[in-house]
Amino acid sequence: MKELHIDLKIEFCSLEELSDSDRSLVETACTMTTTSYAPYSHFQVGAAIRLKDGQVFRGSNQENAVFPVGLCAERTAFFAASASAPQTPPVCIAIAAQSKGVFTAHPVTPCGACRQALLEAETRFHQPIRVLLYGTEGIYIVPSIKSLLPLTFDGSELA
Question: Is residue 29 assigned to a domain?
Fold first, then answer.
């Protein structure tokens, strides 16, 4: 039997160490947590996605009493970007979360459904989407969605 190793390089930094454009994206994601509709979980997530041409699209989680009907912040932002600029690749997404009005100390990662949706964009545009995950104790910088979902399922399996 062979053993496979998957290595993941994640950078960790403070908000002040980010470039101006990345800091602005993270701050936008933090602001978007306030537009979340989370009356059940009280877990508010905000996302901001930057496209290659510099446009930024925003999203926040939207819950529903029928839980599968809601939508995560990451997909809300990504779908808005895809609907408005379908030919422009996303290059970076920032995600922030707070619970009951307090930002999480540790960065929160996207759920599997969001990872899969964003992976589709990486595959479609043949380029990575950087991920900035905000927590009050620091920010994780992940080089691509594929890094968060290394054993991927994409359209090539459907052929």
Answer: yes
Question: Is residue 82 one of the residues assigned to a domain?
Answer: yes
Tell me how far apart the alpha carbons of residues 132 and 122 are, in angstroms, rounded to a whole number: 16
Establish if 155 belongs to a structural domain.
no
Give the integer Cα–Cα distance in Å for 38 and 61: 7
- Work out how many domains the chain is built from and give that number: 1
Active site amino acids: 74
Which residues span the domain enclosing 117?
Answer: 11-149
DSSP one-letter string for the chain: ----------EEE-GGGS-HHHHHHHHHHHHHGGG-B-TTT-EEEEEEEEETTS-EEEEE-B--SSGGG-B-HHHHHHHHHHHH-TTSPEEEEEEEEEETTEE-SSPPPPPHHHHHHHHHHHHHHTS--EEEEEETTEEEEES-HHHHS-S---GGGG-
Q: What is the pLDDT of residues 85-133, one digit of tens each?
A: 999 999 999 999 999 899 999 999 999 999 999 999 999 999 999 999 9
